[in-house]
Each structure stands twice: as structure tokens, then as C-alpha cells.
Amino acid sequence: MASSRTCLSQLTRTTLSRPNLYVPSISIQQRGAAQSANAQKYKRKELPTSQRKKKSRTTFINHDLKDAIQFPLVDAMRYLRATEVGRAPTSSKYELHLRLKSLKNGPVVRNRIRLPHPVKTDLRIAVICDPNSSAA
């Protein structure tokens, strides 16, 4: 009795030695009709407007400033003066926030902004008084 390997090798030799001619059993028109029927079967269904994906924003969200913490001008200046005490005159004390409306895919605004009138930092104030006085 021959082993399974020898039978398998003889079988592969016969299949490789003779040419196989492929004859399509379905004509091209029938195949095209089958593909279009298949396309109709798996066609995307239109979703109702409540389930559609929303368009993404093209601009950034601008928050309402009424929700932010707000101070009267007199109190705000008092707080700003209190933060200036004990700091070097060259260090930054204020922050400036601008409201810009720009596109999300637009250019990035960064770095420093030059103000039309520069802040003068060359002032130095010296108070000379007794250490026990109320002004000190």
C-alpha cells in the first residue's frame, strides 16, 4: 500500500502538468446585475434628522462674560495695586485677555502682543519713615 505522501505527490504532478482553462459559468451581464442587486440590498439608509451626526464647529466657542467673576472698577484697581506691592518693577503684573474670533483650522495666535503705549517700568519709589510709624 502506498503512503499518503506519494499519492499526494502524484496527484499534484498531474494537476500541474495539464493546463486548466477557466470558463466562467455566469456571463458578464448577469454578474453585473447580481452586483447591482447586492448593492441595492446593502445600500446606506438615510437616517432621520434627529439621528444624523451634527456638523462640527468651524470656530471656537465664545463664553458669555456675564458668567465670569466681575468686580467694580474701584475694587479691581485696589486688588491690582495690592498685587504690585513687593514685586520687582520689571516683572509682569497684569494679564490681558482678548476676544478673538478665529477659525479652528486658521493660523495660531501666540507669543507677545505689542501695546501701542509701552508700560514704563523705570519708576522706583522709596518711602523713608520710622519703623514704628503707622505709614510703615
Automatic annotation (TrEMBL):
The keyword Ribosomal protein applies. Residues 30-59 are annotated as: Disordered. Residues 30-39 have a biased composition (Polar residues). One of its GO terms (cellular component) is ribosome. Gene3D superfamilies: 3.30.190.20, 3.40.50.790. Coiled coil: none annotated. Transmembrane segments: none annotated. Keywords: Ribonucleoprotein, Ribosomal protein. It comes from the Eukaryota. This is Ribosomal protein L1. It comes from Aureobasidium melanogenum. The lineage of its organism: Eukaryota, Fungi, Dikarya, Ascomycota, Pezizomycotina.
